[in-house]
């Protein structure tokens, strides 16, 4: 393949030369940097995943995906996305142009589900809009015909889902021909049990690549298959023990788990007191070496403010999902990963349906708090509350758990691996504190700490009173606080165990005398391992 041909075709496909594309140019800056090379032949082209949609870059080539691609379209209700409303308008416009017996998206979905007017709709959906339709109709969208056909052909799958697929073949630009050029893309739609569109996936046809390779430290094979259409053979470059030795000795990356809770932060930080105490402790221990962290987008602003309050100037925060293959933290000595994110049960069930598999979330005997046992979308119409944890039951429960882990564990794994990425400095090392227990077992932690314990008022009063005395006894403390004698003894002995206090026995009666360090925090304990 000549490089100039690849540039020309990819510019047409991706950079807006197709006049009816309503998407922003994806790669203009990259192509501007590469254009001076158009007079030469090249053996390797590095590009983002979206370039897989340019036929010359995938046909008759060795295609290598670094990390799993995700060609799911964002259905957020935004003018910049392929939202559900945008799809509704585009399908309505296409049905009108095709002179279909139905002109309403909602009616079209309902009739297709029930198999009504099947022959008439099949005939109408064979219609291919003209170039003028794309140019003159505001609601037109290049994917509308394929989405409509996928909706019409959707079939029942597990958990009340319906899944349909159709092929989209981009029209050849003026002055060119797609003859002999595989430009096909597979469009898949998934509806939930309430007929709400949940997924639109558009995957380039990789069937004419010489070979497709994927690079992924912890691959979820079903998701690779969904996003490439390829069934992969799995080969490991390193055995588990070799991977651990590489991380510890080559990267010199030390991983410390803090606490034993998952600390989901999909919607923000749940316990700000604990997180603030953790940030302050890491700052106290490592000083200016601590200036970076990774967390969810919802928690980003809160964590940044905590770090600034702890004395970190201009902290750098990356968020889950954006950190993959980025090296901006490669030279950092200390890092913090806060919490994990969860895609929820719905997207897991959607992907199972796409794969033709079946599993259900484990549920308790307690009625769903949303519908009081009547059945709703939250409980997948079972009427029962989700069991604690992320377990599934059914013939394909293990696949469901792996799909769930592809976000929970893999995003944490990716975050950890952003550190210790300086291959030119053999002395470079890093310590990453991970405030979640959602860590792949194969990472084999170097250390763990008990985490953060926020003290109740009574405990804080005991510690504060003892700390302000050069020496004190159990009796003196419980005489001057609201704590019982037993509780006072437990707290003072805990201070000794944690190294915040010393204990000696005073003769002649063996009275326990405690000396508590002046820098002992009264409101919390933080154990960093």
Note down, in words, how this protein is organized:
With 529 residues, the chain is α/β, with parallel strands linked by helices. It has 4 domains: 59 residues, no CATH class; 145 residues, no CATH class; 148 residues, Rossmann fold, CATH 3.40.50; 73 residues, Winged helix-like DNA-binding domain superfamily/Winged helix DNA-binding domain (Arc Repressor Mutant, subunit A), CATH 1.10.10.10. 33% of the residues lie in helices and 19% in strands. The strands form 7 sheets. The chain has a 6-stranded parallel β-sheet with strand order 9-8-10-15-7-16, sandwiched between helices. Helix 4 packs across helix 8 and helix 13 crosses helix 14. The longest helix is centred in the last third of the chain and has 20 residues. The chain is elongated, with a radius of gyration of 29 Å.
What are its keywords?
alpha/beta, four-stranded antiparallel beta sheet, 21 strands, Rossmann fold, six-stranded parallel beta sheet, single chain, 529 residues
Short structural description:
Residues 154-181 are annotated as: Disordered. The protein has helices spanning 3-14, 28-34, 55-58, 84-97, 105-114, 118-124, 131-136, 144-152, 221-228, 240-250, 272-286, 300-309, 345-355, 397-416, 457-467, 474-480, 485-497; strands at 62-66, 155-156, 162-168, 185-191, 197-204, 211-215, 253-258, 290-295, 316-319, 334-338, 360-361, 363-367, 384-386, 392-393, 430-435, 447-449, 451-454, 472-473, 501-506, 511-516, 524-527. The protein is of the alpha/beta class.
């Amino acid at each position: 393949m000549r490089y100039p041909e690849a540039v020309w075709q990819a510019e047409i496909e991706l950079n807006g030369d197709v006049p009816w594309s309503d998407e922003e140019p994806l790669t203009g800056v990259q192509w501007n940097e590469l254009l001076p090379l158009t007079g030469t032949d090249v053996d390797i082209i590095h590009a983002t995943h979206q370039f897989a949609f340019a036929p010359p870059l995938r046909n008759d080539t060795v295609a290598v995906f670094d990390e799993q691609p995700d060609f799911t379209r964002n259905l957020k209700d935004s003018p910049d996305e392929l939202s559900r409303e945008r799809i509704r308008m585009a399908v309505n416009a296409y049905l009108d142009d095709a002179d279909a017996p139905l002109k309403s998206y909602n009616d079209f979905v309902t009739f297709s589900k029930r198999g009504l007017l099947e022959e008439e709709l099949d005939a109408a959906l064979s219609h291919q809009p003209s170039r003028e339709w794309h140019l003159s109709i505001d609601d037109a969208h290049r994917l509308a015909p394929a989405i409509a056909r996928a909706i019409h052909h959707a079939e029942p799958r597990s958990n009340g889902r319906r899944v349909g697929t159709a092929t989209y073949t981009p029209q050849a630009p003026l002055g060119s021909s797609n003859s002999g050029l595989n430009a096909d893309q597979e469009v898949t739609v998934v509806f939930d049990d309430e007929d709400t569109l949940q997924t639109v996936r558009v995957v380039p046809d990789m069937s004419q690549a010489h070979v497709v390779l994927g690079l992924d430290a912890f691959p979820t094979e079903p998701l690779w298959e969904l996003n490439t259409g390829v069934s992969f053979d799995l080969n490991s470059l390193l055995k588990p023990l070799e991977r651990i030795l590489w991380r510890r000795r080559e990267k010199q990356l030390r991983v410390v788990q803090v606490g034993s809770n998952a600390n989901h932060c999909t919607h923000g930080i749940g316990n700000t007191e604990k997180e603030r105490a953790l940030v302050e402790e890491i700052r106290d221990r490592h000083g200016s070496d601590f200036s970076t962290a990774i967390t969810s987008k919802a928690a980003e602003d809160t964590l940044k403010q905590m770090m600034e309050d702890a004395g970190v100037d201009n902290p750098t925060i990356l968020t889950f999902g954006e950190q993959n293959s980025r090296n901006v933290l490669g030279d950092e000595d200390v890092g913090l990963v806060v919490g994990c994110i969860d895609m929820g049960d719905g997207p897991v069930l959607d992907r199972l349906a796409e794969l033709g598999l079946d599993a259900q979330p484990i549920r308790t005997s307690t009625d769903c708090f949303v519908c009081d046992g009547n059945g709703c979308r939250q409980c997948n119409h079972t009427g029962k509350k989700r069991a604690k944890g992320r377990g599934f039951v059914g013939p394909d429960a293990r696949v469901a758990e792996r799909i769930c882990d592809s976000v929970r564990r893999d995003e944490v794994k990716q975050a950890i691996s952003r550190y210790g990425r300086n291959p030119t400095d053999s002395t470079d090392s890093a310590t990453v504190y991970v405030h979640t227990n959602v860590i792949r077992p194969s990472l084999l932690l170097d250390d763990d700490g008990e985490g953060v314990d926020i003290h109740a008022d009574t405990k804080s009063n005991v510690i504060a009173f003892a700390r302000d005395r050069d020496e004190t006894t159990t009796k003196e403390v419980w005489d001057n606080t609201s704590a019982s004698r037993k509780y006072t003894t437990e707290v003072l002995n805990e201070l000794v165990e944690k190294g915040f206090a010393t204990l000696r026995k005073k003769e002649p009666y063996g009275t326990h005398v405690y000396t508590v360090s002046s820098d002992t925090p009264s409101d919390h304990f933080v154990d960093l391992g």
